[in-house]
Structure formats: structure tokens, C-alpha cells
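Running log. JK asked me to keep both predictions on one page so they can be read side by side. First protein, sequence followed by its C-alpha cells:
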Amino acid sequence: MSKRSGSVDEENLAPLAKRSRMPDDIDENLLRMVEQHGQDDVLDASAVRRLILAFEKRSLKNQEMRIKFPDNPEKFMESELELHTGLEELHAIATVPELYPLVVNLNAVTSLLGLLTHENSDIAIAVIDLIQELTDVDALTESEEGAQELIDTLVDGQVIALLVQNLQRLDETIKEDSDGVHNALGVIENMTEFRPELAKLATEQGLLAWILQRLRATRGFDANKLYASEVLAILLQNEKANRLCVGELNGIDALLQSVSYYKRRDPQSSEETELMENLFDCLCLSLMTKENREKFLEGEGLQLMIIMLREKKSSRNGALKVLNHALTGVEGASNCNAFIEIGGLGSFFPHFMKTPKKSKKGLSESEYEEHVCAIVASLIKNATVANRTRLFQKFEENDCLKVERLMELNFKYSTKVRQVDDDNLDENRAAEEADELYLRKLDSGLFVLQLVSYIIGEVCVQGPPSANQRVRTILNQKKMPIEDIKKILTEYAENVGDPENEEERETEKNRILTLTAQL
């Protein structure tokens, strides 16, 4: 593992030797110990001190025996069994998180971290299991003071870097090692849930690189791959630096390789479906940075998404989400034009024309239609003149059939949003705050209606005359004035764009208002 900011000083760590297995008879000892603890009263401070003292003695004895008989495992194995038993006994401390400060003051946490580099990986796995239980979120939330002290001590002891070292040495073909990997990921999930800012530290100490390698190394499904994908989503959720790091570690390629497994096959279980969806979500999160969109384009991510749209497997839902993220905003311009130029429109528009029935874990109808409408809107905004012409020609095909679909969506979501206004009046909620009412409308599909209205406006103003004429004919048939669309666009203009990018937001607002005036 390369040295990073905040990483473990590897020169001060004991070498990680190959595992020496614990004998099976330890299971009987552990069973007796568990039964004994089940009969004991709740721990108090004195009992915790006794447990830690016994553990420290066993740890010291094991260290001495290993030094004295380095080449004779039979001589130090008994002390190793006693140490393992001592670690199991410490699990009882997880029931009294209010005593965690005492555990920290007695340096027990520091001692545990030292054992993460133990030559026998069974000992390290036992420590990981213990830390996973100590950091259980339910336990942490029971005692704020105890949780803070425990987490501070673990972070100061570079627990994440130590866990990553164990992730790298454990052999997941062995069940105990596989469980150790799962528990190590559990520790990191617990810590980042309690203290989200640790997501960046986890990446700095090598976790992101390990996860990407783990995803790349195996195709198909296994439980630890699923857990790794969940932890990756946590790392990327609210940390821009981690998203950038994905690109720097060639992670876009790793994610594309992982999702490509599902381009022509469906997941075989609900757990595998969850894995696939996590991988797509991680790809979407990664595409929130401009640099990663460029790597997505270079890595032929568009071509892969187009294949998924053609195959119409369950991965099409993820492909639509990824395309939405890749094409949106000014940073999606290169992907938008490439998408049109490589023939993406032909594979995409069948999904615009018909929303599939929702599968058990697929996108909802409104989610599906939001993605397809957002993609069309992004293509219109970002395409060059020539590519925009190609796009608008699609709305003229088959006697303007796509215009009819566009108007169908308009009427559908207009009705939903209007119902919110009607309910507001029926419930005498005229005094409801404007922001709250707007949020209720968004929940009912206002954003999709805004996207549809924008597309209608662009088709009418810049599209072929036949498409414009068909829009107005349908509006007249439905006795719906064009002013209704203008009203939606005006509201859209006031709320469009990234609140943190005032210049881009103002540009987009003026663009929509200009379009509205031309209708």
C-alpha cells in the first residue's frame, strides 16, 4: 500500500505473515464462554477493568511466547487460543457503551489496534469482529460521549488503514477470511454513518482503491461485492474529493466493466439486483464531476449504455440514469454531441415513446419518464446546430408521432399538478407557504411537466413547422391554451440551475424566458 496523507507508517508495522489456522476445538471454548456471559449480570466499571486486564495479560503472554519460540507454533498456540478467548470476552463491553471512555483510558483500544497486524490473521479477524460490534450504530447512539471517545481513538490509531491492510491479506475463498472482510467493511460503514466526514479519510487511507480493485476482480455476484458497492456509494455520496479520486484511480473504467456484466443478462436474485443498482448509482455519483464525464466518454461509456437500451434488460433503467447524469448541464455537452453522432437517438427514442411496466425493483413510472425527458432536454440544450437539427427531425418522423407522445406526457402531468392546486383550495390551505406548495407539486410530477414544457417550447420555436403545427392542433383539440405552457416555463425559469452557480443559473433562466416569449 502506498503511503498517503494520514496513512499508517508501514515501516513501524510488523510484517503480515501467512495465516496459521486456529484449531476447531476453540469453538467449544467460545460456546462455554458465551453461555457463561449470558448468565452474568450487566457489566459495571469493575467488571470491565477485570476483562481488560485479563485480555492485556493474555496479549502480553502471547507476544512473549511468539518472541521466545518464533519457529515452534506448538509452543505459542495455547497462548494464542487464550488471547482469542479474551477477545471474545470483550464483546460484552458493547452492551455498555457508556463505559467506552473507561475502555479508552485503559488503552484497550490501542492494544486492539496493535493486534490488527498480528501474524495470525485469525487474531486480526477476531479484533475486526470485536471493533465492528463496538462501533455498531445502535451502541454508538446510546452514549454520545462514549461514542466520540471511541471513534476519536480509532481514527488516531489509523484504524481504516489497518483494516485496508487486512482486506489486502485476507483470502476470501476461506469463510473466516470472507467474514473478516465483511466485518471490516462494517466497521467503516458504522464509523462513516456516525461521522460522515471520515469518508474522505477512508479514501486517503486506501479504501477506495481496494474497493475499485475488488469490483474489477470479480464478475457476477457475491455478498462481499455487494457490501463493497454499498460502502463505495457511502464514500461518494457527499464527498466531491472522493468522486475525483475515482477518476484518478481509473475507477470509471472499473465501474463500466462491472455494469457491463449486465448488458445482456438480468440479475438472478434480489441481492444481485441490489448490487447492479448500487454499481449504477456509484457511476452516477462519479459523473457529477466534469473530469469523470470526460473519462466516461473516453472509456466508451456511451456505447455501453446504448447497448443496454437496445437489449431492454433490467439494466436499461440504470443506463437511463447514467445517461441523464452524463448529459446534463453544460459539462455534458461533449457527451450529448457524441451520443447523437454515434447513433444513440435510434436506441433511445423507443424508451421515450413507451414507459415499461414497473418491475419489483425497477424505476417507477414517473422516475422513468423523468429520466427520458431530462435526456431529451439536455440534448436540445447542449447539441450543436447540426446535431440539434437531427434531434428535431425525430419529432417529424411517422407523422409527428413523437410530438403526440410529448403532448400525452404534458396532459398527464398537467392533470397531476393541477390536482395539487385543487386539493390546496379544497382543504382551505390557501395560506400555505409558497415553498411548501411548490415542493408538493414537485412530488406530484411538476419537474417532469417543466421538462416536457421546455421540450415543447423548443420543438415549436426551433423544430420543423410540421411539429409546431401538430403541437398547436393538439392543444386546440384539448382546449388547452399555449399560455398554460408559458406559465409552467416561467415558473421553471425561476427555479432552474445550480443554486451554487449563479452565472450558469442566470444564463439558463434567460434562455427559458426568451423561449417563452417566442412561443
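And the second, directly underneath as requested:
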Amino acid sequence: MLKLSCRSLVPRRCVTGVVRFFTVGETGTGGAPPITKVSLSKPVSWLPQPVYATASTTPSATKVTTLENGLRVASEPKFGNFCTVGVVVDSGSRYEVAYPSGISHFLEKLSFGSTKNLSREQIMTTFEKLGGICDCQSSRDTFIYAASVESKGMIDALEVLSEVILRPQLLQEEITDARMAVTFDLEDLQLRPEKDTLLMEMIHAAAFRDNTLGLPKICPPENVMKIDRPTLFSYLKHHHTPSRLVLAGVGVDHDALVECAQKYFVERPAIWEEDTSLVGGRNDVDHSVSQYTGGIIREEADLSDVSLGPNPLPELAHLVIGLESVSHQHDDFVTSCVLNMMMGGGGSFSAGGPGKGMYTRLYTNVLNRYHWMHNATAYNHAYCDSGLFCIHASAHPSHLGELTQVLTREFAAMAGQMSREELERAKIQLQSMLLMNLESRPVVFEDIGRQVLATGKRLQPQHFMELIKKVSADDIVRVAGQMLRSKPAVAALGTLSRLTTLPDIEGALLHRNGQLPSRKKFTLFR
């Protein structure tokens, strides 16, 4: 009987996947050399050669074509079986000065309804067959219609989009349903415990009082019954003109996209051009430049009842303090974005580690120091001609005076010293957020549409990565100092008996004798 020690048995996997045992010195199948003689630095002769992936040679630059009617078509290739196509419109609530405020809110609810050639059921059935989804969103300065579908369904999706944008019917029953939906939104905003949407409306109204960016994005209750079919068609006629549209696509062939744009957006006229009786007598597009005013808007409200429900919240008073920032075309725009990341912030409880911004100033200096602080978050809103940098915080109404003092102190400290580690962390976090967001097709689509609408071209992410790298501490101090010289805008909601006056807030933010107030000696109250 042959006896083998354990050391003499060496496992070897055959091509079939079955493990066989060979004794040391035994040759394998196919005349393979002994296992002790197999080189680890050379390819194995009896195994197939590996096939490695190669980098794509397809250019990633965004192509832009302007058609004869002024419509701009932009696209960028992207690997995959799905594509995102849509239209970005130079529209929004900032242009409603000559109209009843709330038209954009109504058009959101009326989107993807019946058109001249398609019913709502046909539109929804088309997207179901294409395995895609559609959406419509409005902001203060843009209006976006978009669809994500399989690449082979791009032509059908573009035909539906052209119908929805240029040939909606806006039937009376649809407008009645839209009124009900808008009314529900208004009631829901008052009942829900999160007040972010209302506060953003209030801070913009305070910062740009009665002009452009300060006009309400949400339809005021008194305008729900004023907005009718002729008013809506009049707005569409003046603001959905080809020169104010950008047709963008991600993961599509540019020539095919241009061909579809010519067929559906140029050769087929808009419904208001075929039937001029649809349009009411309204003014042309408002070209006013935004005027930052500053000021305060306060709304007394009993928020103690919002704590009811499965996720109870304490009674809170909400405060937003804002300063004038820069537009997205300004040289200091990237610097203001880095400053926003440095301030950061969030809720009083956040699961996770440093990757979620736990080292930002509003965490380390505010949320981690004051147990009564429920939320503190910095926002940077940038538009084509202005911007708004603000901090939203909330606490129990009894702490509202202290909350105001804490926020003004952090605003003043923005123009003070910062460590190199703090600056580099904010820059890397901004770069990371930029690249991670651009992994999504809808985000790339929106980025292309907004950039082409504003400048006629699209700058690649690498351009902004380099700009972020170049931001220095001196740039942060300079931009923060410019912000602090603007008049503050304040929005407050809740029980406001302890709210500090606007002159006191403004005085606390000013430089004193050319020096920023010391953090230890700083006091808001005289």
C-alpha cells in the first residue's frame, strides 16, 4: 500500500473546475511542468490569454448645434442602453412680473397632459412601452421637461416632448384639476413639519423684494382662481420660443438628435402659432436684472401642533439669514461654493462619519456645542445675475435670541482665519460631490442644458476641478468680506417673540473699526 504524507499532496484545479491532487514533482495534464517549476512572472502557457478592457476613444466633449429658428441642440455620448433627453427653457417665476404669480406652479401640474395630437393616456402608454419615465420641474429661472428611456426609443420620446412643450391643449377640465392640485400643495406646505420650502420662498422674497428672484415660485392662494387658459397660453407663447429652448441629450447620437429636433421642433409649428385666438393680451418677456434689497419677512405661526404624528418633533422656530452672493457666471462663483462646503451643516442627528460633512463649521461650532440647536445648514443659491448665501437654523422659540447670535457670529467668522486642513477638506468634498453627481444621466442632462442655456457651451467637469484646486484662503476671506458688506435678508417663521430686530442683526455683521469682532467677546445685544 502506497503511503503519501500530507506535504506530498498538492491541490491543483483542472480546466473543468475539479480539484485534483498531484504529488510534488508530478507533471500536470497537457505536459505542464512540475508545480515547483512554474514561474509566477510569466503567462501560463496552457491557459487562455486574458482580454483586458481598453479606455474608450469616443470624445466626451459636448456638441452644440444651433438650428435656423434659434433652437440649440446639445448632446454628449455615454455608454449604456438608456438615454436622457429633454428641454431646458429660459422660464420660471422670475419672469412673472406682468402675470399673476404662480403660472410656473400651474404649468408643472399641467405638464404631460393632452396635446393637439396625443391624449394623456397615449403619452403615458408610450413611456411605458419605452421602459422610461418623464418629469417636469420649474425653478425661479428655468423650466425643465425630461424623459429617460431606452436608447432605441429616443425618437418616440422626443416626439412626445415636442407635443407636450409646443402643442398642449390645456383643456378646462385639466386646468380645474391643476387648481385642485395647487390648492392641495398650499395646504400641505402649511401642515407638514418640514418648512424648508416655505422658508426658501420667504428668504428670496426678503432678499429681492418685489422683483425677479423675489417673486413667489409657489402660487399665492389669491391667484389660484385668477390663472386661466388665455393667461397660460400667453405666457407659453412669449417664453417657450425656440431661442429660449435648449434640447439636450445624454447617451444619444448628436446627428440623430439634430434630425429629430428639426422634424419635431422646427417643421411642426406651436399650437399658439396656428390658433392665435388662444392667446390673451399680455406683455412680452421681462428682461429686468435682479435687484438685491435685503430686509426681513416674519410670519407668526403656532408650530406646536406639527409635532403630532408617528415622528414627533419639538416645537421649533425657524430662522434664515442671507447675504448677497454672486451669479453662476461670476469669477468668484467657485469660491462661494467652496465656502458653502466649508460651512456645511445639517440636522442635530446624522448617522455616519466625516464623509457626511461632520467636520464642517456648522457641525463643529454650532450643532456639537449647543444641545438646543435642532438644525443649521448653509445654502448657496446662484442665478444668472445674482446669488444668495444663507444659513437656515431652527430651535425652540425660547432660544431664538441665542440662535440669532450664534448665526451672526458664524457669518462674521467666515472672513476670519481658517486652517489649511479645513480648506483642503472643503475643496476635496466639493470635488467629490461634483463627480459623484455627474455619474447620473439626468444630472449630466441638466448640467448640459443649464450651461448651454446660459453661455451657449458646456464646460467639462475637469475645468471646475481645476478651479476648485486654485481656491485659496485669501479668496475665501475676500468673498466672505464682500458678502458681509451687503444688507442681510432675514426670514423667520414660528413663535417670534424673542426674535432680534433687523438693525441689530445688521449691526452685528458689520466690521467694527476695520476688525471683525472677536468670537469670545462677540455679543449681539447692546
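Observation for JK regarding the second prediction: The first strand starts at residue 9 and ends at 13.
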